[in-house]
Amino acid sequence: MRLSGQDVEEKLMATNYIDAELKGIYYDHVKHLVTMKYMGSRDEEKEDSEYTVLFKECFSANFNTWLEGAEGNIPQSPNEVAFYFHNISIREIVVEGVSLYQVKMVIPMMD
C-alpha cells in the first residue's frame, strides 16, 4: 500500500530533521534516484545518527544554491558550506495518470 504524502512527512518528522545538518544530496539521473543524507535523531535516541532517504523514480530534480547572508570568503565548493533543514513538504500529484509525490525542501542557501 502506498503511503500518503502526509504519512511520508510524518515519518521524516519523527527523525527530528528540523535544523539538522544536510550531509549530502545527490541526483543520479541515470537511475532517477535522489539520495539525501542528514544528521537526525528519534526522541528515544540520545545521539544523532546519519539518516539516508532515497527518493526513487525521480523524473525531475532541481537544486539551486546561493550565498545570501554568507559572510567571509566565498566557498570554493558546496562541501565548504553547511546546510540545515527547515522544512520538507510532500504532496501527492497525478501526472498523465501516474501517481507521484512532489517533494519540496526548505534549506537556507539551497532551494
Automatic annotation (TrEMBL):
It comes from the Bacteria. This is Uncharacterized protein. It comes from Planococcus donghaensis.
